[in-house]
Specification:
seven-stranded mixed sheet; binds 1,4-dihydronicotinamide adenine dinucleotide; single chain; 335 residues; binds (2R,3S,4s,5R,6S)-2,3,4,5,6-pentahydroxycyclohexanone; Gfo/Idh/MocA-like_OxRdtase_C; alpha/beta; EC 1.1.1.18
């Protein structure tokens, strides 16, 4: 079976996923695309080798030539697009975040549960990265004893003018929020944000960098530096300290260069390069799950829990206080 995919949003990651689906992934093809920017949609359709441009998003989602939906629109539109896919009974891979408010994410949970079968996978691709998988194996296997603390950093080279202070939580930190929940097997119960001196290399409206502090239900403390205009590259760090040792995310394997009196390796510049393998594995697993008729991977519950923590982090940015995260009870459907 070839899964026919409709892509909503043909910006940066939409185009990367279209190329991936067209050249790398087996068992799928992009049959239709939609974007509010018609010129971008036309270009993406051509790159997909003959996909059509849908009249609009609802037409794409309900079309007969679309078996499954890939949502790569802006974060604030995700919940609406996922709800439309669930209403049409179609599997959907939604780039993170699932939503920007906990209430919107809860609407997705309710709709999926009413449908009666899992349809939603959220694009937390770190769960498919070999380094993160190794971290999880070591922690779950007791290799560092009981985890106590986690130190993380999420650095982007630069961010454009559209990027806001809130997005540091909703769009950027949400990766580490999900990864911490997944690595530790515990929910996050509070968030706090401390603002260091701001870099001059940013648009004036943005607070950058930010220190975020989280606590899990079991008392693990997590510190996360989000610095999205660090200038030097795309740098993702994660170290978990346990009672008997620590485990640290490896840098991706890169050849060692010795030249001009120095020894070193190249630093990735963008997310697309750093997580290329993880994206390939993630999207292939999603396509396979659609063909098998049984959703796997990060669920709508994971999307909701991460959104709720990110929303508390946005409140903490504004107030400077420690903000509690009060998750709704986890439905048996997501056990
Ligand atoms: N997993 C990861 O590492 C990454 C995830 N993302 C996520 O992917 C999403 C898209 O990010 P980018 O591609 O960087 O943004 P982008 O701005 O380059 O592309 C988004 C596209 O969606 C379109 N769009 C927005 N709202 C729409 C609507 N209501 N209907 C139809 N089209 C709409 C825009 O016109 C634009 O072409 C974001 O949620 C972001 O968080 C982005 C980059 C990396
Ligand atoms: O998901 C991503 C972007 O949306 C986000 O804006 C960046 O900060 C992240 O590094 C990238 O992985």
């Amino acid at each position: 079976m070839t899964v026919r995919i409709g892509v909503v949003g043909t910006g940066a990651i939409g185009r990367e996923h279209i190329e991936r689906l067209t050249r790398t992934i087996s068992g799928a093809r992009v049959s239709a695309v939609a974007d509010i920017d018609a010129a971008l949609a036309e270009k993406a359709a051509a790159a997909a080798g003959g996909a059509r441009v849908a009249a609009d998003v609802p037409e794409l989602i309900t079309a007969d030539d679309v078996d499954a939906v890939l949502v790569t629109s802006w974060h604030a539109a995700h919940a609406e697009h996922v709800l439309a896919a669930v209403a049409a009974g179609k599997p959907v891979l939604c780039e993170k975040p699932l939503a920007t408010t906990a209430d919107d994410a809860l609407r997705v949970l309710a709709a999926e549960e009413a449908h009666g079968r899992r349809l939603v996978q959220v694009g937390f691709m770190r769960r498919f990265d070999p380094g993160y998988r190794e971290l999880r194996r070591v922690i779950a296997g007791g290799g560092i004893g009981r985890p106590l603390m986690m130190h993380c950093a999420h650095r982007n080279r630069t961010q454009g003018e559209r990027y806001t202070t809130e997005m540091a939580a909703q769009d950027t930190a949400v990766h580490e929020i999900d990864a911490a929940r997944w690595l530790l097997g515990e929910e996050i119960v509070s968030a706090q944000v401390i603002m260091p001196r701001a870099t001059d290399h940013r648009f004036p409206h943005l607070r950058d960098p930010q220190f975020m502090l989280f606590e899990t239900a079991g008392g693990v403390r997590i510190d996360l530096e989000v610095f999205v205009n660090c200038q030097y590259g795309y740098d993702i760090r994660c170290e978990t300290v346990g009672e008997t040792g620590l485990v640290r995310l490896p840098d991706p394997a890169r050849a060692e260069i010795r030249s001009a009196g120095r020894v070193g390796t190249e630093i990735d510049q963008e997310w697309g390069g750093r997580f290329a393998e993880a994206f390939d594995v993630e999207v292939q697993a999603w396509v396979d799950s659609v063909a098998d008729g049984a959703a796997t991977g990060p669920s709508a519950w994971d999307g909701y829990a991460a959104t709720a923590v990110a929303a508390a982090t946005v409140e903490a940015q504004r107030t400077g206080a420690v903000v509690d995260v009060n998750l709704a009870p986890r439905p048996a459907f997501y056990a």
